[in-house]
Write a structure and sequence with these properties.
Layout: H1 13-80, H2 85-89, H3 93-106, E1 111-113, E2 124-128, E3 132-139, E4 146-147, H4 149-158, E5 167-172, E6 175-176, H5 178-187, E7 189-192, H6 194-201, H7 207-211, E8 218-220, E9 223-225
Parallel strand pairs: 3-5, 4-6, 5-7
Antiparallel strand pairs: 1-2, 2-3, 8-9
Helix pairs in contact: 4-5
Length: 239
């Protein structure tokens, strides 16, 4: 059985009471001295301490403000257009392409549907003032369907050279094979599977935020420089 910790007993006799009082007085004096020293330090260094305190408080305030701003932007996008996965699944190929075009327009990409025979792996093309040109290949699948690496190869070969894309993306209401996702990540062909499509169309996350698309590349001496379609970029090279 565990032994119980003994409680401090009360002082007995005048001598113990006096000793306890002296100890208590000494502790009180030490506490007052500590508080006084701290106050003097703050008064002496408040020009440095105040900005430091404000800086420490500003970080969580900025984070809360950013979260609130993101939520407001998503709410505005969803008020303009929201498409559910069930609605996508009920579409035909043409409706799917028009829906992707409308979602790009919602996100600030003036876009047009171009998919038709001989479209060379471009169903929708959008232009963004900051992000540049995006080329979308739409792949509507049935339940359990998966997009394979062969689609990624074709998009990689035409998005930059044929359509002048800064960003190429394949979008499906289904899934991608592991090799297709790995190949796309390696060669700069973005992919949007069913989960990402839900986050984009249903939850209101902008496509450029979802895929972390870089800004439009700068032109230097007539050539593109920076993220996007530069010489030797993923969109301009074959595997």
């Amino acid at each position: 059985m565990a032994r119980r910790r003994p409680w401090p007993r009360r002082p007995r006799g005048a001598a113990e009471v006096l000793a306890a009082g002296v100890v208590a007085l000494a502790m009180a004096v030490a506490a007052v001295q500590l508080i006084t020293a701290t106050a003097h330090t703050l008064l002496d260094y408040w020009p440095l301490a105040l900005p430091a305190a404000l800086l420490a408080l500003s970080a969580p305030v900025r984070r809360i403000a950013r979260i609130a701003a993101v939520r407001r932007r998503r709410a505005r996008r969803l008020a303009q257009l929201r498409i559910t996965l069930a609605q996508f699944d009920a579409m035909d190929d043409q409706e799917f392409e028009y829906a992707l075009r409308d979602l790009l327009i919602r996100d600030g990409w003036p876009a047009r549907k171009v998919g038709r025979g001989g479209d060379q792996a471009a169903d929708v093309i959008g232009e963004h003032t900051r992000r540049g040109r995006i080329v979308v290949q739409a792949k509507l699948t049935r339940v359990g369907g998966k997009v394979t690496s062969s689609v990624m190869y074709v998009v990689n070969g035409t998005a930059g050279p044929v359509h002048g894309a800064d960003h190429a993306v394949v979008i499906t209401n289904g899934a991608f094979t592991r090799s297709a996702m790995a190949w796309g990540d390696q060669y700069g062909v973005h992919w949007v599977d069913r989960d990402r499509l839900r986050r984009w169309a249903e939850d209101g996350t902008a496509l450029d935020e979802l895929l972390r698309l870089p800004p439009r590349p700068r032109r230097v001496s007539g050539r593109l420089r920076g993220p996007g379609r530069t010489a030797g970029s993923p969109l301009d090279r074959a595997p």
